[in-house]
Structure formats: structure tokens, C-alpha cells
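Exercise: predict the structure of this protein bound to adenosine-5'-diphosphate.
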Amino acid sequence: MIAAALALAYYGFRYADSMSRPIKALFEEYSRQEAEKLIADLEARIDEAAVALLQRVAAERRDMLLPSPCDVERGVAIESFVVLGPDKKLQCHGPAPTSKAMKAAWAAHLRNLNWDPVRVGSYHHYHELTDQGSTLVVYAARRDDDEQRYYVAATIDTSLIARNWLDEALAKFRKNLRVSVVDDETGLVAGPAMGGSEERFLYEGPLGKALYRWRVRIAPQNAELFRVEAERRKVLGPLLIILSTVIMMVGLGIVWLAVRTERRASHMKSDFIANVSHELKTPLSLIRMFGEMVATGRHKGEDAAREYGAIITRESERLSHLIDNVLDFARLERGKASYDFAEGNLADVVERALDVCRYRLEKEKLQLRTRIDLNLPPVRMDDNAMTLVMLNLVDNAIKYAADGGEVEVSAARIPGGVVLGVRDFGPGIAPDEQQRIFDRFYRARTARDRNVRGSGIGLSLVKHIADAHGGRVTVESPVRADDGRIGPGALFRVFLPAPVSDEGAESGARHDVHALGTVAK
Ligand code: ADP
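Solution:
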């Protein structure tokens, strides 16, 4: 349970955390990846053009067929280039400059190039923004066959890049993104203009190592949707955190309750063992004492011997009743309780139980009043189990209500079944305990305070048996009599369903009352 609660809380927190990460950050991450693809695409094309030119120049130097190593085809996207000797002195222009301005422009480019980090085999980029547009120079160091170093620098046609390459690359983007390339000097280079609501979710980053003065901008096609989603997540994140915390707390609460219940049950069980042992011990020592007296002839005459014999019988009856209870209870606990249902008459069950208790009733000077309907319908029941029910209820009335002076036992027909009643006139049961006395091992405060012997399983057995018969058991304390007056004591009722039959069913009032008489004091 704890593990489940913790796991739930952990995943809840993680989920909530991921949900609460700003959607802007997620969008930026996604845009960065898209921008990287665009950059890789562009740089591959620039590299391809530069490498092709470098190869042609290298071949030209090797063959020395042409008068100038610059007299080679420029290839795609190369505007013009220069070759410098080992001392970085200009060797030639390709193509030859047609104006002074062109010469001056190249002289300016060469002044701007930083050759220091340039190693043989590598090449570098110089990107510059001017009023007219931008210039991209690729420059590299090479070594020819006789180990002579030379240098090549080429300008790339950036308007071709802006018009063709970028347009092609931008067209490849998903429909849900708006992508453009801008520079600080002239503004928009390629793609759509952006602003307004897009600004909130706008990614902007450099366009790679080559065209580093240009910047790429990416915005979602529908910025409004993004905003709504972001708001939703803002609310959902904390909500999930609260929810997972509540679930965890509830889980821990359940665990705490389970532990408390288990503790209580274990206390009750140890009380039960102590109570049962005590209940076994008392009748056994009485049986032993009076048995020995009879056996050794230490008694005053026949009457006393009979008296001792009666005590031994009574105590052994109590013992077997207790043992029956414990065994039945153990079967119940193991879920192995089984009943032998057959049609029978409850009046017989009541009489059998009263026969067993008669001696104790007499002993406690309790008056027994019985009201058994003569026309009780047959019910489907387990004889022994129902006898145990009656024995437990009457036994409790004797144990707890002997000072009430009377016990009433009744069996009456009611619509749909039969109701058994056992009423005493003793101290009764406090309202807050009336539910709990049917729990296993539960003993009411009065029983504990008055030190009345018991194990706390009798009523739980009664309840189980009543339920198994499709009936139920109730307790009423104090008791409202038929005339509406409230009286002392407790009334236990057991309802059992009977097969539907018309005969006498409508009359709870019409039943014949058959008094079995009162037990002698
Ligand atoms: P036990 O009698 O062995 O303690 P039960 O399950 O038969 O166990 O009864 C549970 C508790 O209900 C008793 O401990 C007692 O406190 C209370 N009880 C049962 N019957 C009566 C009664 N007739 N009058 C007062 N209290 C009763």
C-alpha cells in the first residue's frame, strides 16, 4: 500500500513537473533542432561549392597548363576568388577584375581575413554585412605537390543563397512553423515577416558558423493555440501536484487505519485467549472439586451427593457450550463454516435450548416467560446452529441480567418469516455499543467493569448464523413494550425468512399465546 502510494506520488510529481515546464522552453528546444537542420543543409551546400573550387585550383596548379592558376571555372555560387602565394601575396584573381572597385573590394576583404587559425586542409568563413547586402568569404590554406603553401579565398553569392537555397530549405519546414532569416542591417533576408502575437513564442538564433551575421527566426503557425495550451499547463501542473499529494495522504491514512485495526484485533485476540482460558478453568475446577467429594464420600448424605452431581452436570454443560462456541467460531474464522439446512420447527429449537438453560435459570432465580406461536411456519434452518443462537442469547440474559429477575423468550410469526426474541430486564447496553457487541471479541464496558466472564464471540456467532440463514439479528435497549412504554433491559431479535404461505401470514396479532409457565424460584 505504502509502495503503491509512493510510486503514484513519484510518477505524479514527475508528470506534473514535465507538464509544468514552460511550453516556451519546449518550443525553443524543438525550434533549435529544426534550426540545426536548416543550418546543416545550407553549410553542406556552401562547403560543396568551396571544396569543388579548391579542387579545381589544386588541379590547375599541379598541371600548370594554364597561364594562371586562377583561370579555372568558378562553379556554382562562387562570385570570384583569389589565390595567394606562400607569403600571402596575391597571385591572381579569378575572374580577372573588370574594375578598380572590384580590386579594391578584394583588397578590403583580404585585410579583414584572419589567417592565424587557418591550418592546411581546413577552411574558414568570414561573413560581413554591408549597406548593399552581405558578403561571405570562404578562405583556406593548401599545400601543392612540391610542399609549397598557397591560400585561396572565394566570395559566395549570398543573394543566390537568400533567393534560392534558403527559399528551398524554408519550404521543407512543417506547415505548423513559420521560419525566416534576418540580418540586423537590412532586415528580412528570406521567409515571412514576424511580429505581434508571434513574439511570445519566437525562437531566434545564429544561422550557423558560416553565415553567422544572419539569424534564423522560428514561430508557431498558430501562436494563439500555443498560448492557450501554455495557460492550461500552468493550471494543470500545480493541480496534479496537489492531486498526487492528496492521493498519497489518503493512501497513508488507509495504511494507518489498517495498522490500527490490526493492532486492535491482536489485542482482542489476546483478551479472548485469556477469557476463554479463564472460562474453561472455573467450571473445570468446580467439576474436579465436587467430583472428588462424591468419589471420596466426603458429603453429607444423598441429597448433597445429588446436589454435587447436578453442579457437575451444569458446569460440564457450560463447558461444552463454551467449546461449541469456540469451535464454531474457529470454523467461521477459517471460512469453513458449513450448515445443514433442512425444514424444521423453531418451537422445537427454542424448547431444546431452554431445557439446557433451565437449571441455570432456576439457580439464578430468574423467572422465564415464553410466548411461542402455535402456528409457526416451518423454516429452512440448521437445527444445531439455531440452538446455538438461542443458547447464546439466553446465556447472555442469565449472565448479564440476572438482577432483572425475568427473562422473556418468544417466537412469533410475522409476514415473510419468524422472529425469535430474548428479552431481559438487566442493565441493558449503551446505544454507542449496540452495533459493536456483534463484532468478534468485543465486550461492552459493563461486562468488563462488572467482571462478568465471557469471550466476546457469542453474539458474533449469532450474527453470522442469522446472516447465513438469510435473516438478521437486532438489539433494542432500552425496550419499548407493545403498549409503548419504555422498559429496562435488552431485547435481542432474530428474524428468519420462511417460505411464503398465505395461512396466517397476515396476522402477527392473531397468534395463540402458549405459556409454558414460569420456572420455580
Ligand atoms: P460474551 O458474553 O462472551 O462477552 P458476547 O458476544 O455474547 O460475548 O457478547 C458481547 C458483549 O455484549 C458482552 O460482553 C456484553 O457486554 C454485551 N451483552 C450481550 N448480551 C447482553 C445482555 N443481555 N445484557 C447486557 N449486555 C449484553
